[in-house]
Design a protein that fits this description.
This protein is an alpha/beta fold. The chain contains 17 helices and 13 strands. The chain has two domains: 8-169 and 370-385, Glycogen Phosphorylase B (Rossmann fold), CATH 3.40.50.2000; 176-366, Glycogen Phosphorylase B (Rossmann fold), CATH 3.40.50.2000. Helices cover 47% and strands 17% of the residues.
């Protein structure tokens, strides 16, 4: 494609559904500032909705853990080969990297080594958890890092990385008036006005469903045995086949206890008294919504073994990391059993207000709103500095 001289070209690279979502919001904000920009890149349905000329669909790229990533190697290699080819024939003025660090840091190095191009990283690698050496790569190959956690600022500044805390994008998705404290009280914990609703959020990756869904369903059945007014909503992400969840529910022998809810997790948060969630961004969503949450996680043994050696944080949950305290109970790997989950959930249900009140600290810590808008401002500054 031959672009008009006046039309700038921004390439956006992301590899997972969450990155596709946040990249879409960022592009929307950039277009508000400058409508004469051509976007190309790697992404999914939300980037396509924004009119991005996708040269690779990310459907086959979502993976987590060492063994899971190895299985995706062929898809990743193909995506990188196409990326290199696009740089040759249609060099962008700027590249925006969104999450997906294994691929994106390699892409940043290749682009900087071969082309005069500005690079912005939005939703940066979790160097505070592991692979801190990535900070040196970011410093060398990235012009600016747009950070989404306040505790990242000190680490990036100390490493000499040009960076700005732009706010967390979920602060805009979950404004304060949507939190549970602002909603009419359900009054369900006593069971006087209806069933107690517990949300089950097993994740959006196939590996997470394989490792966590059955445990969640078994836990739900045990919870119901102890508290027969409980009912359960099971989240189905767009990337997950409905039959996988249906088969697990039918196998429990108590399908009447469960309803499958498709689409954004917000609907489950709105209807639930408590959620059992896979570790990930969804737990931060639950914190901003003010829903007491039990965080659980299991992964392939090799991946967990490697994580124990490499990960340097005290907690798995983002809300816990943000306030530096376990305000969301965590049951990981061998601790994530139906028996222990049941015991913890029953305790949380009888102390619901206590767990709700502790979650308010997350919003105060995050503070700044308008992450995509603020990052778009940085992108426009970098674009003006480009030599094209």
């Amino acid at each position: 494609m031959n672009l008009p001289v006046s039309l700038k070209h921004i390439m956006v690279l992301t590899g997972e559904p969450s990155g596709d979502f946040h990249a879409g919001r960022l592009i929307e904000e950039i277009r508000r500032k400058n409508g004469r920009i051509y976007f190309s890149g790697m992404g999914g349905p939300l980037l396509r909705q924004q009119g991005v000329d996708l040269f690779y669909d990310i459907e086959n790229l979502s993976a987590m853990g060492i063994t899971e990533v190895l299985m995706q190697f062929g898809h990743i290699k193909k995506a990188f080969d196409i990326f290199r080819e696009k740089l040759i024939y249609h060099t962008p003025d700027m590249i925006i990297l969104v999450d997906y660090p294994g691929f994106n840091l390699r892409a940043a190095k290749y682009a900087k080594d071969h082309y005069n191009v500005r690079i912005l990283y939005y939703i940066t690698p979790k160097v505070w958890a592991w692979k801190r050496s990535r900070l040196f790569k970011i410093k060398k190959y990235v012009d600016h890092a747009a950070l989404i956690f306040p505790f990242e600022e000190k680490l990036y500044k100390k490493a000499g990385v040009s960076s700005t805390y732009v706010g967390n994008p979920l602060m805009d998705e979950y404004p304060e008036h949507l939190s549970k404290s602002f909603l009419p009280s359900k009054g369900l914990v006593t069971g006087l006005n209806g069933p107690i609703i517990i949300g089950l959020l097993p994740g959006s990756r196939k590996a997470e469903i394989q490792n966590l869904l059955d445990i969640m369903i078994q836990s739900a059945c045990r919870i119901h045995q102890e508290h027969n007014q409980t009912r359960f909503l099971v989240s189905k992400a767009a990337s997950i086949k409905r039959e996988w969840i249906e088969e697990c529910i039918i196998a429990s022998g108590k399908p009447q206890l469960f309803d499958i809810v498709e689409g954004p997790v917000r609907e489950i948060l709105r209807r639930s008294n408590l959620v059992i969630a896979a570790s990930g961004t969804v737990t931060l969503e639950a914190a901003l919504f003010g829903i007491p949450t039990l965080l659980i996680y299991k992964m392939a043994r090799l991946s967990f073994w490697a994580a124990k050696l490499l990960v340097r944080v005290k907690y798995a949950g983002l809300a816990n990391l943000i306030v530096d305290e376990e305000i969301m109970p965590e049951l990981l790997q061998g601790e994530a059993t139906p028996e222990k989950i049941c015991i913890k959930v029953l305790h949380m249900l009888t102390h619901e207000q206590y767990y709700e009140s502790r979650l308010e600290r997350v919003r105060k810590k995050l503070g700044k709103k308008g992450a995509a808008k603020n990052a778009a401002g940085i992108a426009m500054n970098l674009l003006r500095e480009s030599h094209f």
